[in-house]
Amino acid sequence: MTTDDGALLSAWRAGDRGAGKLLFERYYDSVVRFFRSKIDHGSDDLVQEVFAACVAGSDRLRSAASFRPYLFAIAHNVLRDHFRRRQRVGETVDIGEESTLQDLSPGVSTLHAEAEEQRLLLEALRRIPLNYQLILELRYWESMTTAEIAEVVGAPHPTARSRLRRAHELLEEALQRLGEAPARLASTQANLERWAQQLRERRDPSV
C-alpha cells in the first residue's frame, strides 16, 4: 500500500479502515505532545476526541494534501473547548486573546531541560498568549509552513505570516523579561529552531 498522506486519506475516505489506522498511527504522537504540554490531566481523552472528530468530519477536507493541518485544526478547537468547559464548571480560567499557558494551566510544570537554553525557551513560551505559542509550536515542532498554519488557526495566509512575526517578537520580549544573562538570551534566540527540535524530541511520547 502507498503510504503518503494523500493516498492513505483517499483510501480511508473510500472505506479502507486500515488506511485510516495508518494515518492515525502516523500522527498520534504529535497530537499527544500537543496536549500534554498544555494541560495537567485528561490529555488522553482529548486525543481520542480529536481522532473521533477527524473521522466524523473527513468529508470536509478540501484536498488529500490538507490532512495534517486539518488534524491540528481539530486539536486546536478541542483545546479551546476544553478550557471553555473548565470555565463553565466554575474554574477561574480566562480564555481571552491574551491568555497565556500560565493563566490557563498553572499546574503544568515546565519540562526539565538538559540545556539551560531549552528551559529558558519553555518558560518564555508559557508567558506569551497561547494563540501565539501555538503558532510557534506548529512552525518549529511540527515544521509547518505558514500556509498550513493559516489552515490550522482559520486565518488568511497573510494574517498567519504577520502573527508568526508577532509571535517571534513576543517570545523575544518574554525572554528579555526572564532576566537571564545576555549571552544566554542571545544563544536561545539564535538557535531557536535547534532548541525547539530538541525539545520536540524530548516531548515525543514514543521516545
TrEMBL record:
The keyword Transmembrane does not apply. It comes from the Bacteria. Keywords: DNA-binding, Sigma factor, Transcription, Transcription regulation. Transmembrane segments: none annotated. The keyword Transmembrane does not apply. InterPro entries: RNA_pol_sigma-70-like, RNA_pol_sigma-70_dom, RNA_pol_sigma70_r2, RNA_pol_sigma70_r4_t2, RNA_pol_sigma_r2, RNA_pol_sigma_r3/r4-like, WH-like_DNA-bd_sf. Residues 23-88 form the RNA polymerase sigma-70 region domain. Residues 119-167 form the RNA polymerase sigma factor 70 region 4 type domain. Gene3D superfamilies: 1.10.1740.10, Winged helix-like DNA-binding domain superfamily/Winged helix DNA-binding domain. Belongs to the sigma-70 factor family. ECF subfamily. PANTHER family: RNA POLYMERASE ECF-TYPE SIGMA FACTO (PTHR43133), RNA POLYMERASE SIGMA FACTOR HI_1459-RELATED (PTHR43133:SF8). This is Sigma-70 family RNA polymerase sigma factor.
